[in-house]
Amino acid sequence: MSSFEEAETEETVTCLHLTFYHPGQGEKMMFRCLDFCRRQQLRADDMAKFGRDSSLCRYSLVDTRVSRIQFSLQFYRKLHSSEYAFEIKNLSKKTKLTVNQTELGYLNKIDLPWKCIICFGDYQILAEIQEGEAVDYFETHLHLAEAPILQERCLPSLQPIPENGISPSFPLGQGKSPTEIDENEL
């Protein structure tokens, strides 16, 4: 038998890819303590903390508007399942954290979707989970975005405007009279 045949089976490792953006990153350098060059391995029972206090947080942001501990990510295995996941917990008493459209207050936590945008203050973080099989550890891989991750979205026009620029007096394709719509229903 060759050494290749006797080698241990290689495990794939769950990796959390985090892409960071802040509009002032060029002049304020708030990400200078983060290692964007390589993957970092963490034990499964380690909690990945993000904030400005480098003695408490593994991922330190150099910004006085960031809480000492802003939020944490915990790796875990789902009950009665072989699936692994991350939970995110807001640890800031002053700043709400948004995961996609879900707002988290102090000590609120939720499962991190496999792909989502985490926001607090002017910070935007795209989180993407790359699944793996390893049980004892996971990896993080940090990236820096040059452009905003979250783009402002304009509400689409409710009614198409014809090329001649003249709107019809009745809604196209409808034989009934116009109805009032609450702006919150859009």
UniProtKB/TrEMBL annotation:
It holds the Pfam family FHA. InterPro entries: FHA_dom, SMAD_FHA_dom_sf, TIFA. Residues 49-121 form the FHA domain. It comes from the Eukaryota. GO terms for biological process: innate immune response; positive regulation of canonical NF-kappaB signal transduction. Residues 165-186 are annotated as: Disordered. SUPFAM superfamilies: SMAD/FHA domain. One of its GO terms (cellular component) is cytoplasm. It is found in: Cytoplasm. Keywords: Cytoplasm, Immunity, Innate immunity. The keyword Zinc does not apply. Belongs to the TIFA family. This is TRAF-interacting protein with FHA domain-containing protein A. The gene is Tifa.
